[in-house]
């Protein structure tokens, strides 16, 4: 049976998924190279302490330095500081030779900060009646600050993905409208893309969100759950089970790259291929490109920015619609995860509380 | 015609934007999570602010909604619900609910706690002052549902099939539950849980116990089970099932000495599994972790 519109929707969702995966891989690589998380954390600590000198002291404290890879030798900034370590390090610095948990010495240390904004902030923080100890008060203050840092990091990452989406789109000349026309006018390519999309769905969702949060390893103890997440020594989430980091899900395979080459690219759009190149100059070609391609590029950039997991879900829904009436496809995880999700559920009409 | 064709070409994009779900956030006290993660029920002193004049029709689920406040024990906008509320066994409780409605007097209440993003607000923080609800169904993520005891009226017997009501089928509902996502993070004193709006109460399913039931601190039981749909196809595995003290489902579980491999045909209500959330944040701390939403089922009726 032929479903031309549905096949087109499937093919477009699949192409957006592959492009989003490409950008996601690039983003992670860049974030790792420039240590984006560590730099954002450092910026957050400076913002919190409002004193770069004190920040340097905190970062130089053995409790924090232990997290750094030989920073003095050009090592990397830590990408995570626990509230416990931060509070203890700050207390130790402010109390000087006295014990870190000496309240009097801590208050005196804060008083010696001069007329800095930090003195005002810490004086208020150390009077917070919600907590029993100075350490808890400082931990809560730090955690609150780190909430803002997470927000910054997320926004920075989103901006980076958007920029990468623009670069990838233009480099690959991924004009949504042109791609759609190619697929619509060439059922053979469209059919190949749909088949590849089916294979991609078999690999599972391209992130860890579809994995369980915990496992219950002992069937006789339903209160003993084991977290499926493992953090590295910098407290970055690495993986939990082998299933988490299956690379196949997160990378574009060579066959898929070839497929992308068949539906997008600069063939026919290069300056030399442009019919007007003999009579008009390079600038006219740029204007021609913008007129012909800009709309499609913008759609592609916006689509990529939605992310690979999103397009996986959309692709799954279209594939389910195409397979309507057929049993759900199986994957390699839990029986429940094996079923492809149903079409968007109807609002509950009964049984709603 | 050309513009229609263009619209069709970008249909996936448009569909994609429309399916982009919004998340809602609840900040729970970590002590609360630790206290209730392995309990079936919660005891609360509950102020009844607004109640349904009469229970829902059996075809709509037969519940009676009661909106109110339990500032001390729950500290969140909430509702409590009586199951099979039109039946005789629940008459005294329903009468008393109406007697105290709007009187601002706190009444002892026990029932299955239920944390589920069915009618969520954008953000709610536990133990902030809970406003007086303006209707019987305010924005809430927390319920006591079903109630097993209201004041001195024990209504654990209401945990049974609702005649005339058709629950959701297992394949549809569990496929949906399994697809839900959650993001959690924690501080030393709080746990932040974010998820999209969720639905599908009252699901009928067959479960095959995967271990020995374990008694919980409040007298309830928990057991892991695999779930089958109507056609005996597996739809979920290792789901924690919760049995509420004094209810017919728990009585059957205990009296029949059910264990590994035994089957039950039941109706259940989903709730977030705080045991899983607790284990996760113990490891991940303030690092936000996004995973499949961990859920468990409150067994509210046994079917023949």
Question: Which structural traits does this protein have?
Answer:
heterodimer, A: mainly alpha, two-stranded antiparallel ribbon, 15 helices, elongated, disordered C terminus, B: 304 residues, alpha+beta, OB fold (Dihydrolipoamide Acetyltransferase, E2P), five-stranded mixed β-sheet, five-stranded mixed β-barrel, 7 helices, 18 strands, 20% helix
How would you describe what is shown here?
The complex is a heterodimer of chains A (353) and B (304). With 353 residues, chain A is mostly helical. Chain A has helices at residues 4-34, 36-49, 52-60, 62-65, 83-95, 103-111, 117-125, 134-171, 176-185, 187-202, 247-250, 254-263, 282-305, 308-322, 335-338, and strands spanning 214-215, 226-227, 230-231, 237-239. The model of chain A is unreliable at 69-73, 239-247 and 327-353 (pLDDT under 50). With 304 residues, chain B is of the alpha+beta class. Chain B has two domains: 2-155, no CATH class; 168-302, Nucleic acid-binding proteins (OB fold (Dihydrolipoamide Acetyltransferase, E2P)). Chain B contains seven helices and 18 strands. Chain B has helices spanning 2-9, 11-18, 30-36, 91-100, 170-179, 248-255, 274-284, and strands at residues 23-29, 41-51, 64-69, 78-82, 106-119, 123-125, 140-150, 153-154, 168-169, 181-186, 190-196, 203-209, 214-215, 221-228, 234-243, 263-272, 289-292, 295-302. A five-stranded mixed β-sheet of chain B has the order 6-1-11-10-17. Chain B has a five-stranded mixed barrel with strand order 2-3-4-7-5. The radius of gyration of chain B is 20 Å and the shape is globular. Mean pLDDT of chain B is 91; it is low at 14-20. At the A-B interface, helix 1, helix 8, helix 9, strand 1 and strand 2 of A face helix 1, helix 2, helix 5, strand 10 and strand 14 of B.
